[in-house]
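Order emerges. One example.
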Amino acid sequence: MAYTLTGCLEEPDYRYSLVARTSAAGNKSLAVIQCNPSRASGTRSDPTVGKVSYWAEEHGFSSVTFLNLFARRSPQVHEISHLSYAELVGPRNNETLAHHASGTSTLVLAWGGSLPVPDELYRKRLAELRELLAGRQVHRVGPLSGGRYPRHGRMWNAGNRKLEPLEWTELLPNNSSKPTPLRGAA
């Protein structure tokens, strides 16, 4: 099993997309929407890119495009927790999400429960994402983390590897849960 990084749309402080090719035959594509990017780039992988790319290959996907709710690049919460909503999302993020989502065979949400943003910003972004992806089926791998968040790609382990449809009501229930405190970056 192997993967190669083949494309990256980035600018200072932001990564909008990262594309990996796997050894799987065919043209089946996967887009994985994560919370926010770490330091991976077009020339440098990270553990999440590796794990998700191997999972994708095992499931017959020849390409994986990594996208994000928030395009501001940082593996550390303290680097981004003070930023405005617009700075977190990034100026080209919605355009990039819409472009890749329209041409992808399968969309998976995967950010886990360690969010670098307050709950109200997370819920606002989820509502925007739902609108951007209107009419497209989204998926998750394994059960929701904490019963509320789509499992992070690094956690697609034994017992948590099954691709399943995801309903927006699982992420945006009518009854609001208590706010999530700031925690480590996803």
Q: What stands out?
A: Confidence is low (pLDDT under 50) at residues 175-186.
